[in-house]
Every structure is written in C-alpha cells, then in structure tokens.
Amino acid sequence: MCKRVAGCGIEELPKASPPAPLEDNAAVPLAENNSASDAVSEPLDRDPLVTHLPEESTTTAIVLKRAQKRAKDDTQWRDGESKMSGTVYMATTEHLNTLSEVYAIYAHANPLHADSFPSIPRMEQEIIAMARSLLDPQTTEGVCGCVTSGGTESILLACKAARDAWCHRQAPWYAGASYASPHFRAATDVPEIIVARSAHAAFWKAASWLNVRIVVLEVDPSTMRLTAAAVRRRISRRTMLVVASAPCYPHGVVDDVQAIADLCKRRGIPLHVDSCLGGFCLPLVQELRPDLVPTFDFRVPGVTSISADTHKFGMGQKGTSVLLYRSKEMRKFQYTAVTEWSGGLYISPTLPGSRNGGVVATAWASLICLGRSGLRASAEGILQARDVLVDAVSRIDGLCIMGIPAMGVVAVGTDTKAPNGGIDSLIVMDLLTARGWVLNALQKPLSFHVCFTGAHSLETARKLASDLAECAEEARRMKEKGVASDGKARVYGLGGTFPDRGAVGDLLIHYQDGVLGV
C-alpha cells in the first residue's frame, strides 16, 4: 500500500525511505554541493532560529539534522496508533514511503507547462476519471472536472464558477472581469450563497474573496442536517448557489441532498455538494452500510458540482483535491483566460499558475495503489471504529451523539435532557486531551468530535472509548464539586457566548499573527 504524512511541515522530505539519523561527525552526502568550511562552520546539533537568509551555504548534513530534530516536536503517529483526530489519513508508513518515491520522481514537474511535462496532465485526467467512477457510478454524459490544491481551492472555484454563471444569466455580456465594476453592480443585485452553519469555513472565505453575500441557515437540531424546507425559505432571484455537505465537517452527517437537489433543479439554481471530507470514503460506506448514507452524488438530478479531497481518504500527499462538474458548460466559468497580455495568450483552470506536479503524482499513485478494494477495506475499518465510539457514548448518561454520523466523524455533545443538565462535553474533551488525545472542539452547539482515519486501529478506538467513559465520570464529579476546567471548555464556552463577535475575530487575528511570527 501507499502512504503520506500530514501536519509535519518540513520534517518529511520527499524520499524513498526516511534517512537514517546522522551522527554528529557523520560524513556529508552530496559533497560536491558543500565547501570544506561549510562542513565545520556549525555543530550538527545546533538549530538556531533563522531570521535572515544565510550568507553562506549550509551543508546537507546540517539541513537534514535540523529537519529531523524539528520533526520530533510534531505530534507523532505510528501505524494504527494515532491519537489525533483526522490530520493523518494514511494507514501505513509503507504507503507513505511509496508516495515519497513517486514524489521524488516528479518533484520538478509543473503542470502549467503541459507541453514540457505531459505526464502530469495525463495523471490529472486519470485522477478525475477515478474520482468520477466513485461519484458518478452511472457514468452521466458530460461529467468533467479538475485537480486542485485542496478542498478550499475546490470550494473557491465551485463558488467562482457559480457566481460567474449567475452573472452571465443576469447580463449575458458579462465576461468575468467586470463583476466588481460600479456599472455591473448597479445593474444587478449582489448574488448569494446559501449554506448551513455546519458547512465548511471555506465557503465564508469564498464569499469574502468573491465579494458575494453568504446566507447562513441553521440545521435541524435533532438530525444536524440542512433541510430542503430551510433552503426553500431563503431562496431568491439572488441565489447563485446552494451548498450541501456530504458529510459536514463538524458532525459527520450528510445533508438532505436529494430533497435540496430537487428544489434547486426546479428553481434552476446550481447545487454544490461538498464531499471534500467524504468523497473517497462515503461511496464505499454506502456499499457496506447503505442505511447510513443517502444518495448524494451525480445520481441525484440537480447536483451540479462535487468536491472531494484526494489528500484525505484518498490518502494522497497533502495538496490535492478534485472538483467535478456535471457539464463543461459550468466548468468553463472557473477558468481565467487572458487574451491581451504582452506575455502571450494565457489560460489557467485553477487559482495558481505554476503548480506542484509531485503532489499530483502522489494522488494518482495513491488511488492506483489502493484501488477500490483498498478504499473499501479502509472504510470498513473506519466504520468499526465509529461503531465502537457511538456505542460507548450511548452508554454514558449525560453525553449524546450529534446526529447520525455517516462515516468516521463522530461528534459528542452534552445531553441537556439528561438529569442535572448532562455532562459538559468540552470538559470531557479537556480531560481526554490531558491523556494525549488530540480532538476538535466545536461550537453552535458546544461539542467535540473525533475523525477516525486509516491511522486509527480498532484497538485505538477501543482505548478512546475506555478513556471517554472514565473522563465522563471525572467530569461528572467535577460538576458536582463545582470545579471548573481551565482548558478549551473555558475558551470555547466564553467564545461561544461572548456577544461581541468582532472582538472574538480580533483574538483569532492576534493568534494567527503569533503563528506566522514575522
């Protein structure tokens, strides 16, 4: 099988296998690229903060040593033993090593220059075809797509195509570049995207970047699904796109795609199904447990586009996703074509110009290595882990599962109908964090989730279930004694109820500035 690492930044360089740890006096590889003074200029065990471009070159040995040292600061995972929610989706280091070999072959390739690197466009065509075979099993005529750098770009492009298609319907002379002009804006209304509150945050980013309005709907509080009834109340002549999730990131449930699609088709409005998280897992889950997954793909008339990340349950290296359209007529609106540039004629299908051919190659290699049987085996293991946790929560008085999780994303909340108002789910999460689990806090309503992937074994799921039961009892005792948590329960509890959302946004900006550092 094939494999990749996530969340490790610099530490895993493209290679056939991880380099052996270097001794302090190890011989320097690739000596032709290093001077003699370089080799003795700095001890190998030093790792100073880099604040400017070094005047002199640094030896390969020092660079690799620093990378290995920094990697030790990252959250570690081993085959099947990850305690992180999501993040790492691969099942084995063997898979990672195979993909690293493939990446090394294509690290220099740039699909922008298709004439120089024709192998990458061919791989992209095959990735799209493989994704289509999962999400368009009836082989609908005309379904097409593109490979992007990730789920956010897929979402941005789907929204951009929908916006420009809407503008074209409003004013057929519109060519794309004039959307922001006062003349155009005075002649039309501001287009709107309809999303559930549980839709991915990238849709808010898309609305901001594309200068359109986002209309946020509440989900059904019992099922956590977006319903057609909620959408019907907010559709208008300004609606450029409706979004449904399969599944949504917070709760792992699939929205009522079929009813929403029927409504959109009758009103002539595009429907995008965001399956970035589940696109390479849900079709296999549907084969194994059809009761969990309602039909959500191109078999549903009215679905016009679908996003699915190859770098999640497709188990490719981070940096690839697939965006599929029902027809080329819609896809053309995502393109950027420039005819009057002095540099020549230019067209780009996605946001970047130059792109990394290496990660495209790893997405292709991952799907080829795994095949349908490999994805099915992964889905089966994920469902087993899901069932273990769902069963464990059902046995804890005071906690509840948020909706019906369709795959490996299981959200745990406070059962407010339980005696004494239930157990604070975020305090439970804080206690699990203290035991080494890396989970995701949610809000509106306050809860947390775990996303099971190929990096989680059934034994790991059982360990989480056991720890969850113990932490729930500890949280219950804390509540009885009036003991407060000093972890995320306090932060999210305050952030969720603080009336000045602008101030909360400012805190996020300060946090991001701190992460960037410079």
UniProtKB/TrEMBL annotation:
Keywords: Endoplasmic reticulum, Lipid metabolism, Lyase, Membrane, Pyridoxal phosphate, Sphingolipid metabolism, Transmembrane, Transmembrane helix. Pathway: Lipid metabolism; sphingolipid metabolism; Sphingolipid metabolism. GO terms for biological process: carboxylic acid metabolic process; sphingolipid catabolic process. Its main location: endoplasmic reticulum. Its EC number is 4.1.2.27. It is found in: Endoplasmic reticulum membrane. Its cofactor is pyridoxal 5'-phosphate. Pfam families: Pyridoxal_deC. GO terms for cellular component: endoplasmic reticulum membrane. It comes from Pycnococcus provasolii. The modification N6-(pyridoxal phosphate)lysine is found at K312. This is sphinganine-1-phosphate aldolase.
